[in-house]
Amino acid sequence: MFLRIDHSTEYRYREPVELTPHLLRFFPRSSPGLHLLRSDLSVQPGATVRWNLDLEGNILGKATFSGTTERLVISTSLLIEQKITNPFDFLLEDRAMTLPMSYNGREGPLLSPFLTSRDVNSEGQLEDLLRPFLNGVSATGSTLGVLTAFCRAIPVLFRYNPRHEEGVRTADETIALREGTCRDFAHLFMEATRTIGIAARYVSGYLCAPPSSPCESHTHGWCELYLPGAGWRGFDPTNGILAGAHHIPVATSVTAGEIPPVEGSYCGKQGLCVAHDVTISARELLPGEEL
After folding, report:
1. pLDDT tens digit string along 193-231?
2. What are the backbone dihedrals phi and psi of residue 151, each rounded to the nearest 5 degrees, phi first?
3. Starting at the edge strand that comes first in sequence, how are the strands of the sheet with 22-24 ordered?
């Protein structure tokens, strides 16, 4: 399967401003079956872009600018080949088949940051939220049974409500409000699974629309859990599914909401940015469609 992603971000300013260095996260991180066939990046005004791998292995660009401008446009175009389409194509090790599962002596220290809860005050609410799922599969104790049942329940128990301002709600806030964004639900899922000893990290990327689908394509946030034998596996609690072929991961972080596609600012007084427009097209190409 071939996927094409076009992403444009435009800022307009009331008067010429000097731009600070901007961090860019657009290019997919390496994963089995996913191949980046073509990529184009355009930055206006002209910038020097240097590429690195950050602490968590994400492809990170740093754009630096000279002079001043009243407009900033950052555009990317990606052509991706995705060869793995079954999200359940993995085998867990015996120690991961049932809960509580365990990590070995090498995994434990490496996974420690991904096992540490960020919402200490939410643990009681999370335990209450998880209890029916833990009790419901207690006859088999299936790790995957608990995780998939809990993931499927999120869009049933909570209402998706887009929120454009920055920030992620704590798990207890999301539970109390019974609504949230994709990053809120990812954070809730991560914190819940950490309470039962499963390492979790946040993922930002794209959700591509299948052909003839009425669904919109957009940037998206979900999470990955580390399961011995399967490695890092994606769970999308906003849609109640495992992350599959149409989920394109760009960056990961131990904390939800920290890895936007574009991160930067300008020098000068507040209120000079008068417009921030984002246009995204992310879709699966039809058979025979020109690449």
Report:
1. 999 999 999 999 999 988 766 566 789 999 999 999 999
2. -65, -45
3. 48-53, 59-64, 22-24, 262-263
Our measurement of the distance from residue 206's CA atom to the centroid of its chain's CA atoms, rounded to an integer in Å, reads 8
Phi, then psi, of 249 in degrees rounded to 5:
-75, 135
- How does the average pLDDT of the chain come out, rounded? 93
Residue found under tokens 């191949």: 35
Assign 72 a pLDDT band (cuts: 50, 70, 90): very high
How far, in Å, CA of 217 to CA of 281, rounded? Answer: 6
What's the confidence (pLDDT) of residue 137? 57
Write a three-state SS string for 58-83: CEEEEEECCCCEEEEEEEEEEEEEEC
Helices (H), the chain: 107-115, 123-136, 143-157, 171-177, 182-195
Of 58, 41, 57, 37, nearest to 49 by C-alpha is 41
pLDDT value of residue 218: 84
Mean pLDDT of 219-247: 96
Burial category of 15 from C-beta neighbours within 10 Å (exposed 0-12, middle 13-18, buried 19 and up): exposed
**Given this model, what pLDDT does residue 221 score?**
95
Across the range 38-53, mean pLDDT stands at 96
CA 71 to chain CA mean position, Å: 28
Beta strands in the chain (DSSP E): 2-19, 22-24, 34-44, 48-53, 59-64, 69-82, 159-160, 179-180, 200-207, 218-227, 231-236, 241-242, 247-253, 262-263, 266-267, 273-284
* Residue position matching structure tokens 């039962």: 196
Strand pairing of 2-19 and 266-267?
Answer: antiparallel
What's the DSSP call for residue 129?
A: H
**Residues 257 and 206: beta-carbon distance below 8 Å:** no
pLDDT exceeds 60 at position 284: yes
